[in-house]
Design a protein that fits this description.
Largest sheet: 8 strands, mixed
Number of helices: 18
Structural class: alpha/beta
Distance between the termini: 46 Å
Strand content: 15-25%
Length: 540
C-alpha cells in the first residue's frame, strides 16, 4: 500500500500553490480535480486558436511574495523602454537576467505589462471606472444629474448610515445615494440576483475596501503628476485604481500550466477528471479520501493532511461519519452564483461616436466593460485582444467575452449553446456595440459555483469554520474552500499559510482566516515566511 501523503482537492490557484510549496519542501502531494485542465476559474479556454479568460485575471498584488512567485514562474517580458518595470520590484533584474538565459527571444513564456482600462457602459455612453470627476463624465451625466449626485454624496458624508449591515449601507456611505443608484445598485443586483439590502456589508469590505470618491480624486491628481511612468510598482495605490498589471502572454491558465509542470517534475501527482466521493475521518483527523475516476472506478488515498478548495457544502456532505446537523445545515445553505461566458469572434465593433477606438476595427481600449444597461442580461464584456494580443489567433479580428451571472436552475444555464450564442449576439447589438450578423464564431463556457455569495447562511459560516478546526489535518483554503470572494492572490496566500502550518505545527492556523480581512499586507518574516497579502487585488 502506498504511503499516506498530503492530498489536495482542487487544481486552481490555491491548490496548485499549495502543491508547489509542498514540492519545494520535499513533501510532493497528490492533487485531485474534477476538470480536464488545471487552473480552476483561472484556466484559459482555447477555441479555434482564440483564448478566453474566465472572468478576467489581473496579475497584481500588494504582496511582494505573490509578485515574486508569479514572476519566478513567468518572467516579465523585457521590452525597449521598459526601465520602470525593470526596477519596479526587488529581484526584477535577477529574474530578467534568468529569463534571457532560459528563454529564447520571443518566447511565449513571459508576463506582459498591460495597461488597465475598464469602463461602465450606461446610457449608451462610456464612463470611466472607477468614476472620475472628469469633463467627459460630467458631460455624459449632464448638469442636473451631476449636481444631484454631488449633493447626495455630501449628505452621505455629513449624515452617514450609522450601522453598515448591508452592502447598500456600505456603498451609500462611500458614494452617496444617487451615485449608488446610478452606477452600483442595478449592476450589483444583476451579478448576485438578490437586492443589495440582502447582501452582507462584508462583501464590500473585502472587494472594495478603501475606495471612495475622495480617494479617486486624489489618485487622479497623482496620476496626472506622474504621467509617463510605465512600471507596475503601485503598492501605495488602492487596488481598484491600479493602472497597470502583469498578464501571462497566453492567458492566466498559462501560468498554472507551468506550475503544474513543476509540480509533476518535483514528484507531485495531478490527477484530473477525478471526483471526491467520500472523506473518512475520526473525531480529530481526516484519514482517507475516496475518489471516483473518469472511467467510473473508485479508489482510496490515505492522507496525512487534506487541503480542500472544494465548495464547503460538498466537503461537508462527503464526510463520514457525518458532521453535526447544525454544521450540515449551514454548509447546505451557503449560496453561490454561477457564471457563463459567450465567446464571440467579430471583425469590428461600433462604439458610440467620439469614443477612442481602433480606426480599422472600432475596438475600444478596454480590458473589460461593465454593462449597466437594464434591457440586457449581460453583465460585462471582456475584449481579450486588450489583455494580450496573443489571445487572438488572427489579427485584426476581435475576440469578445460576454459574461452572464446566473444560477444553474435559470433558463440561461439550460439554454442550448447555439441558442445562447445567438441570444448573446443579439444583446450585443441591442446595446449598439456590434452587429449580430457580424459574429463569425462562438463558444460557450459554463462555470458552476464561480462566486461564493454573502447571503443565505453566510452569517453563520463560523459554525463550519469551528467544526473544521476540530480536524487537525484539514485545511480550508481558496475561494470556495473558505466561501470567501477572494482574488487569486488571496487564495494563493491562504494556501501558502496552510502549507506553513503543515510544516510547522506551532503556527496559528486561525491566521489563515485573516487573509483578505485586514486593511494592509504584512510581511512578518524577512526570510520569506511572513503573513503575506491581506487585501483585495488581482481579479476585477
Amino acid at each position: 500500500m502506498a504511503e499516506p501523503r498530503v492530498v489536495i482537492v482542487g487544481a486552481g490557484p490555491a491548490g496548485l500553490t499549495a502543491a508547489l510549496e509542498l514540492v519545494r519542501a520535499g513533501r510532493p502531494p497528490i492533487v485531485l480535480d474534477l476538470e480536464t485542465q488545471v487552473g480552476g476559474i483561472s484556466r484559459t479556454i482555447v477555441h479555434g486558436g482564440n483564448r478566453m479568460d474566465l472572468g478576467g485575471h489581473r496579475f497584481f498584488s500588494k504582496s511582494d511574495w505573490v509578485m515574486d512567485w508569479w514572476r519566478e514562474i513567468l518572467p516579465v517580458e523585457s521590452m525597449p523602454g521598459d526601465a520602470p518595470t525593470r526596477i519596479a520590484y526587488r529581484n526584477q533584474s535577477r529574474e530578467l537576467a534568468a529569463a534571457s538565459r532560459s528563454d529564447s527571444p520571443g518566447s511565449d513564456r513571459v508576463m506582459l505589462v498591460r495597461p488597465r482600462v475598464s469602463r461602465i457602459y450606461y446610457l449608451r455612453k462610456f464612463f470611466d471606472y472607477p468614476i472620475r470627476l472628469s469633463p467627459a463624465t460630467l458631460a455624459n451625466l449632464g448638469l442636473g444629474r451631476t449636481a444631484a449626485i454631488g449633493a447626495s454624496y455630501l449628505r452621505s458624508q455629513v449624515f452617514p448610515r450609522a450601522h453598515e449591515r448591508t452592502l447598500e449601507d456600505f456603498l451609500v456611505n462611500r458614494f452617496g445615494q444617487r451615485l449608488y443608484r446610478t452606477f452600483f445598485k442595478d449592476y450589483t443586483e444583476k451579478v448576485w440576483g438578490v437586492p443589495c439590502t440582502e447582501i452582507s456589508a462584508e462583501w464590500g469590505a473585502q472587494r472594495i475596501k478603501g475606495l471612495s470618491i475622495g480617494r479617486a480624486v486624489v489618485h487622479a491628481v497623482r496620476s496626472a503628476l506622474r504621467r509617463g511612468e510605465g512600471g507596475t510598482a503601485q503598492k501605495a495605490t488602492e487596488t481598484s485604481l491600479i493602472e497597470r498589471f502583469l498578464y501571462p502572454k497566453l492567458g492566466p491558465g498559462q501560468l498554472w500550466e507551468v506550475v503544474a509542470e513543476r509540480i509533476r517534475a518535483g514528484g507531485g501527482e495531478i490527477r484530473l477528471s477525478q471526483r471526491v466521493t467520500g472523506i473518512q475521518r475520526d473525531e480529530r483527523t481526516v484519514r482517507a479520501v475516496e475518489v471516483r475516476d473518469r472511467e467510473g472506478g473508485t479508489y482510496r488515498i490515505d492522507a496525512t493532511h487534506l487541503i480542500s478548495t472544494m465548495p464547503i457544502g460538498e466537503l461537508v456532505r462527503a464526510l463520514a461519519p457525518a458532521a453535526p446537523a447544525e454544521v450540515r445545515a449551514v454548509a447546505d445553505g451557503l449560496p453561490y452564483r454561477d457564471f457563463m461566458t459567450a465567446g464571440l469572434l467579430v471583425p469590428r465593433m461600433t462604439p458610440p461616436p467620439g469614443t477612442p477606438a481602433d480606426a480599422k476595427t472600432g475596438m475600444p481600449p478596454d480590458n473589460w466593460i461593465y454593462v449597466q444597461e437594464p434591457e440586457v442580461r449581460m453583465g460585462r464584456i471582456q475584449i481579450f485582444n486588450n489583455w494580450s494580443p496573443a489571445m487572438v489567433a488572427s489579427s485584426p479580428k476581435i475576440f469578445l467575452g460576454l459574461e452572464y451571472f446566473c444560477q444553474d436552475t435559470d433558463d440561461l444555464w439550460s439554454m442550448p449553446d447555439d441558442r445562447f450564442l445567438s441570444f448573446a449576439a443579439r444583446e450585443l447589438e441591442t446595446i449598439g456595440l456590434a452587429r449580430a450578423a457580424d459574429v463569425e464564431d462562438g463558444v460557450v463556457v459554463r462555470v458552476p459555483k464561480a462566486y461564493p455569495a454573502y447571503f443565505g447562511s453566510y452569517e453563520r459560516l463560523d459554525t463550519v469554520r469551528r467544526f473544521a478546526a476540530t480536524l487537525s489535518n484539514l485545511w480550508l483554503v481558496g475561494r470556495n474552500g473558505m466561501h470567501r470572494y477572494n482574488n487569486q492572490d488571496h487564495s494563493m496566500v491562504s494556501a501558502r499559510m496552510a502549507v506553513q502550518c503543515i510544516l510547522d505545527p506551532s503556527r496559528d492556523r486561525e491566521a489563515i482566516w485573516q487573509v483578505n480581512l485586514e486593511q494592509d499586507y504584512h510581511e512578518e518574516d524577512a526570510a520569506g515566511g511572513g503573513d503575506a497579502a491581506r487585501r483585495d487585488s488581482g481579479n476585477p
